[in-house]
Amino acid sequence: MFARYRCRSFVSAVALATCAGCTPPPTSGLSHGEPSATLAATTTTSGSSVMRVATIKPVRKTLVRRVEQPGEIHAFEQTPLYSKVTGFVSTIHVDIGDRVKTGQLLAEISIPEYEQELKQKQALVAQAAAETTQAQASIKVAKSSLQSAQALAAEAEAGQERLEAEFQRATSELERFTALFAEKAITQKTLDETQATHRAANAARSEAKARIISAQAVVAEKQAGVEQAQADALAIASKEDVAKADEQRLRAVHEYTRILAPYNSIVTERNIDAGHLVQPGKSASDKPLFVVVQADTVRVFVDVPEADAGFVSKDCEASIRIPSAGNRTIAGKVTRTAWLLHPTTRTLRAEIDMPNEDGTLRPGMYVIADLKVAERPDTYALPRTAILWKDQQASCLTVNADNVIVRIPIVTGIRAGEEVEIVSGLTGDERIIAGNVAAYREGQSVEVVSIPPK
Q1: How far, CA to CA in Å, does 343 sit from each of 70, 338, 346, 350?
Q2: Which of 426, 424, 427, 432 is nearest to 383 (CA)?
């Protein structure tokens, strides 16, 4: 019975040796690397019931996890240029492949009706400016008239004071002469003359008061004239502002007839010829007049699978291989990532900025990106084939001093190629079964054939 079991175990061991690595993979995924030891086939000694097993000792080393994915070169900036106005293409100054500077004129669009309307708006601005000047002059005239009226009013007030004094003197004379007449000191004629003088002084005083009232009315009228002139000036100034704003708006619209380069770039598309009727672009599907790209620096787009996305971050070392350029390899670093995964492909977009002053890296080129996403220096490592998984718990099979198999739980870290980081659970003195671990059971006695570490 036991012999049949040994036979079945031997056959199973040989079969499993040919498909080593059928144990569940660690959760950290795969990348390139070499196993730490060459696995020996498990056999039985002739005439012996003890199975032979290959073992290794864990060694400390630096593990590097790498991710290799295809990518594509894109321009650092790419801008489609559309017309904002409707008109006819009058002049084209560039063609595809031309290098242009910021603000360089690429094409001109002719809109005759806009040009005539602009001239009309300029004339209205000039007219409004002349009316503003005229209004300011009217204010000066009104102020001068006000000053004249104020001077006449002051003169009338001064005359009234003089006539008031004469009236007081005439009143005093009349009182004195009336007393003298009562004493028979003067004649009736003298008294009559005094009374006439008094009446004349009183009339002159009343006339002066009337002149003052009239002068004040004129001052008020002139003051109102000044205020009217100032209000007219404000209205005309507002009219001038409206005319200027209208002209500036039309000038801004007219500037859209000049298609300019937004930055130092290369023209990669030209979809117009002279005489073409162009209209404002209404959607992204409309053909642009030009497409320009900035390619002094290029971006390499790499989509990293979900299993490796958590390891990719800014400044990860990258090696970019370009098959179409004789497998030319360029070193770089991850410049940025999208952080979130694409909802359809479940991949993370990573971008690598590459200098391209010589222009040899062209947008659209296919590349292979090799990303160094993790590095663990001085850590224990085991071959992937030496690890067992059960209920998300990793373990390995060791052979103790009595040559009996013992299962040891371990905690794994990153996976680098065919090797897996062992975070905890090992001391370094263990004899670990290197592969075909499914062929053995805990407590089984074996004969050890050690494999020296590489």
Answers
A1: 19, 12, 6, 15
A2: 432
Amino acid 279 reads Q
Query: 309 lies in which domain range?
Result: 70-80+293-375
pLDDT digits (tens, 9 = 90+) for 171-181: 887 777 787 77
Query: What pTM did the predictor assign?
Result: 0.63
Domain count, the chain: 4
Q: Distance between CA 50 and CA 39 in Å, rounded?
A: 19
The CATH number assigned to the domain holding 270 equals 2.40.50.100
- How confident is residue 41, by pLDDT bands cut at 50, 70 and 90? very low
Do 157 and 224 have their domain in common? yes
Q: Spell out the residues 6+ positions from residue 87 whose beta carbon is closer than 8 angstroms to its own.
A: 109, 110, 111, 114, 257, 277, 278
Regarding whether 396 and 362 lie in a shared domain, the answer is no
> Is 261 found in the same domain as 249?
no
3-state secondary structure (DSSP) of residue 210? helix
Enter the tokens of residue 375.
């590095």
Cβ contacts of residue 393 below 8 Å, gap of 6+? 409
137 part of a folded domain? yes
